[in-house]
Design goal:
The protein is an alpha/beta fold. The chain has 15 helices and 15 strands. The longest helix is centred in the middle third of the chain and has 16 residues. It comes from Streptomyces ehimensis. Belongs to the NtaA/SnaA/DszA monooxygenase family.
């Protein structure tokens, strides 16, 4: 009898990205608690491992004005998850919190509190920033060089773990003391050890530094590799780094962020996907995206016309608070080649070049394709990013999850109560 490898699933609350469709009549509030609650309850009904919240520390700007695709008024992530802990029972609760503009003791305390209130279901998605624009919101400012982001983040995670480990497994508090390059802290922690030892650590980053950081310190890595080939290469690379840190492959779960579109037939699903992409990239969004690459004001260009014949301005910065799409000359050359080969307009080029729809087809086709990624070691599971708030996950849970269960590729019930139980992660070894 063949034993299938079971996948892990998580739900990403949509928002600050090029995936969300704001104009759909079914789209709801991005900030009302009812929206967070709906998506979380659906994810738990689908037996997902965790609910994932992204977060930004400053509203992005484009040409000096608020970015049209940003969310104004989004509540702070850990606060939302504490509220969700009261309306869910098993679902993991993952908060994105920046390691550049926070401090270890304060954050360790907030996350340990969430871990206790939820019965051991907390996770921390560690992100970094070297952006001086974001840093203007903080006393320290954006002084960190890009190369220092991960050294601070690695020490931050290590310090937080030292603080969590200052309580013994039998419930005895002991003083902690850490003195390093970025942090010098000591004292006694006031939150006992949680049911899962300490929160699960998630890391999002595909750079060389990010991969090494994930191999050394993360329990889950959130990636963007949408193709089977790219996923297998990334999976082998990151898993291959674990031994250097005394870790086994199963101690790090690789979960790419993916989208999905379902239809009763493959043709219907593709038609829906095409419509969604047009909704995601309006004419205005197409020009805005192009300006991020070209570093120039391109508002005079027709989104239904050809790409600009001028070169990018590498010193130009139209958007603040958003990660650049890459080397502007390389991206522009790639987009020009795509446009010329297929006769695409600006909007059509942006739609095709920035598309993130990973799984398109009937529920049975999507279930089979997802299982293939896991079986072929391109992923351990997926973080689903729906295009609608808050009901974008409903169809997947109703139509795809039962098929994954039928195939033996996904759980039929929760076997434990903590997030580490769901992910099959061992309890952290106490290092008191």
């Amino acid at each position: 009898m063949t034993i299938r490898k079971r996948m892990h699933l998580a739900a990403h609350f949509p928002g600050v990205n090029n995936t969300t469709v704001w104009s759909d009549p079914r789209a709801g509030s991005q900030i009302d608690f009812s929206s967070f609650e709906h998506l979380a309850r659906v994810a738990e009904r689908g037996l997902f491992d965790f609910f994932f919240l992204a977060e930004g520390l400053r509203l992005r700007e484009h040409k000096g004005r608020l970015h049209d695709l940003d969310v104004v008024g989004r509540p702070e992530s850990v606060t939302v998850l504490n509220a969700l802990a009261a309306v869910t029972e098993r679902l993991g609760l993952a908060a994105t919190v920046n390691a550049t503009f926070n401090e270890p003791y304060e954050l360790a305390r907030r996350l340990a509190s969430l871990d206790h209130l939820s019965g051991g279901r907390a996770a921390w998605n560690v992100v970094t920033s070297s952006d001086a624009f974001t840093g203007e919101n903080f006393r320290r400012g954006g002084y960190l060089d890009r190369a220092d982001r991960y050294t601070r983040a690695a020490e931050f995670v290590a310090t937080a773990r030292e603080i969590w480990d200052s309580w013994t497994p039998d419930g005895t508090p002991r003083p902690f003391s850490h003195h390093g390059r970025h942090f010098s802290v000591s004292g006694t922690f006031d939150v006992p050890r949680s049911p899962q030892g300490h929160p699960v650590v998630i890391q999002a980053g595909d750079s060389e530094e990010g991969r090494e950081f994930a191999a050394s310190a993360a329990d889950v890595i959130f990636t963007r590799h949408g193709t089977l080939e790219a996923g297998r290469a990334f999976y082998a690379d990151v898993k291959g780094r674990l031994a250097a840190y005394g870790r086994r492959p199963e101690e790090l779960k690789i979960m790419p962020g993916v989208t999905f579109v379902l239809g009763d037939t493959a043709a219907e699903a593709q038609e829906k996907a095409d419509v969604i992409r047009e909704q995601q990239v309006s004419p205005q969004t197409a020009i805005l995206t192009l300006e991020q690459v070209w570093g120039r004001d391109l508002s005079a260009y027709d989104p239904d016309g050809p790409l600009p014949d001028v070169d990018p301005d590498p010193q130009g910065r139209q958007t603040q608070g958003r990660v650049p799409l890459g080397d502007p000359f390389a991206v522009a050359a790639k987009w020009r080649a795509l446009s010329e080969a297929k006769g695409l307009s600006i909007r059509q080029t942006v739609i095709e070049a920035t598309g993130r729809q990973s799984f398109i087809g009937t529920p049975r086709q999507v279930a089979a394709r997802m299982e293939e990624f896991v079986t072929e070691e391109a992923a351990d599971g997926f973080i689903l990013v729906p295009h609608l708030t808050p009901g974008g996950l409903d169809d997947f849970v109703e139509r795809v999850v039962p098929l994954l269960q039928e195939r033996g590729a996904f759980r039929t019930e929760y076997s434990g109560s903590t997030l580490r139980d769901h992910l099959g992660l061992p309890l952290p070894v106490w290092k008191g």
